[in-house]
DNA sequence: AATCCAGTCAACCGCAACCTA
DNA sequence: ATAGGTTGCGGTTGACTGGAT
């Protein structure tokens, strides 16, 4: 719906603006089946009238299952402030230290309120610095450069490798590090207690996060990014029709890829944890599609159409929002990470803001 | 009740970095 | 070595929302 700049000429004929639940569903389903090895080709293969860039952004910033929704905690905000003081507008690097948060999200938070909060602190600090000439003058984080943490550097490196949650996907220590970029691992982060940065990634949870991918659902085996290990969910062609609000005709050609049984490309779950994750994912997706429970109860119901279109009359049911947002309601990032999420347990008992 | 306005955030763009042939 | 293609990052935009008037 026309957010952002005017369209560039190359994208005439493609959908733009806000994503519909149908598009979200299609993207999620496609990625869980085939991964996202080629964003450029993805929309065509998934039957989406979007450019690859748009798909990637949507996935990274909104659809990734490992995203944490809801307000930033005070700890997270403090971490952002500190890291921004060190790194500046390196949002992806900051996001790397905040599991479940995206660079876009962090950027928005910074620009909307953190920046304002920091400004007074900076003034305050400047005043204090006038008295203590060398104390804590660097950075705008308002954190004195004290308490050298000998493990800060290595911890940060570890975090970058294991707690990756931003959208860059390449902070595996392998590539795409601009020469002039600040290597966090090389910084003398004397003024940062890195443990504070991992506010929402307790050590036990971190191994669950992918060390090398934009999606925590990818795995890094021998440095090679594997396909996403999400459960395989077979979406019947009729469901696509329902999702798309189409008549129950045959799916179009472009849809074929997305709906075809996933034979060779889908990763096979190998552990119980992954199976649990698969169950969770399947369950949620089914719920989102209104397929949870007796199939005939929901399939092809008008309510489903309304529901999927985001105008559900389902009322008090948890499914009252569009399927994808419902998915987020029940899938707080870290907790819902495939291998540990208990979908019955809301992270903090309250829905995300917004 | 209607209008205004500031804040929020999803999505866009351009560019730089990286990859591959 | 390099040209073309792809991906990721950071800045910006503007629709949406809720509170204030």
UniProtKB/TrEMBL annotation:
Chief location of this protein within or outside the cell: nucleus
Gene3D superfamilies (UniProt xref): Homeodomain-like (1.10.10.60)
Region: Disordered, residue numbers: 115-178, 246-270
Domain spans labelled Myb-like: 11-63, 64-114
The keyword Repeat is assigned to this record: yes
Biased composition (Low complexity): 126-166
InterPro entries with a match to the protein in the record: Homeodomain-like_sf (IPR009057), Myb_dom (IPR017930), Myb_TF_plants (IPR015495), SANT/Myb (IPR001005)
Basic and acidic residues bias spans: 167-178
Molecular-function annotations in GO: DNA-binding transcription factor activity; transcription cis-regulatory region binding
GO biological process assignments: regulation of lignin biosynthetic process
GO CC terms: nucleus
Record domain HTH myb-type: where: 11-63, 64-118
Pfam name, any one: Myb_DNA-binding
Annotated transmembrane regions: none
Domain of life of the organism encoding this protein: Eukaryota
Keyword set, alphabetical order: DNA-binding, Nucleus, Repeat, Transcription, Transcription regulation
Subcellular localization, as worded in the UniProt entry: Nucleus
Name of the protein this chain belongs to: Uncharacterized protein
């Amino acid at each position: 719906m026309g957010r952002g700049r005017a369209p560039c000429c190359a994208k005439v004929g493609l959908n733009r603006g806000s994503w519909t639940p149908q598009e979200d569903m299609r993207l999620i389903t496609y990625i869980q089946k085939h991964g996202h090895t080629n964003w450029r080709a993805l929309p065509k293969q998934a039957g989406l009238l979007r450019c690859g860039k748009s798909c990637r952004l949507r996935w990274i910033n909104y659809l990734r299952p490992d995203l944490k929704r809801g307000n930033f905690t005070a700890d997270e905000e403090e971490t952002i402030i500190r890291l921004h003081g060190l790194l500046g507008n390196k949002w992806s690097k900051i996001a790397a230290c905040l599991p479940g948060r995206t660079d876009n999200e962090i950027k928005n938070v910074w620009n909307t309120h953190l920046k304002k909060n920091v400004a007074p602190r900076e003034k305050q600090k400047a005043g204090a610095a006038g008295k203590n000439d060398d104390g804590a003058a660097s950075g705008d984080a308002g954190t004195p450069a004290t308490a050298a943490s000998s493990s800060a550097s290595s911890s940060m490196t570890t975090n970058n490798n294991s707690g990756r949650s931003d959208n860059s996907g390449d902070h595996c220590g392998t590539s795409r590090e601009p020469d002039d970029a600040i290597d966090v691992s090389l910084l003398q982060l004397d003024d940062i207690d890195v443990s504070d940065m991992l506010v929402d990634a307790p050590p036990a949870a971190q191994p669950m996060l992918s060390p090398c991918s934009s999606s925590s659902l990818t795995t890094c085996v021998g440095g090679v990014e594997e396909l996403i290990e999400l459960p395989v969910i077979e979406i019947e062609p009729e469901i696509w029709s329902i999702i798309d609000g189409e008549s129950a005709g045959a799916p179009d050609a472009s849809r074929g890829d997305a709906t075809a049984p996933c034979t060779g490309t889908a990763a096979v779950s190998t552990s119980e944890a992954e199976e649990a994750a698969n169950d969770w994912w399947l369950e949620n997706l089914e719920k989102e599609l209104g397929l949870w429970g007796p199939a005939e109860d929901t399939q092809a119901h008008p309510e489903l159409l309304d529901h999927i279109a985001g105008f559900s009359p389902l009322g008090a049911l948890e499914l009252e929002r569009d399927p994808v947002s419902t998915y987020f309601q029940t899938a707080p990032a870290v907790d819902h990470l495939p291998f540990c999420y208990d979908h019955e347990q809301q992270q903090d008992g309250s829905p995300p803001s917004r």
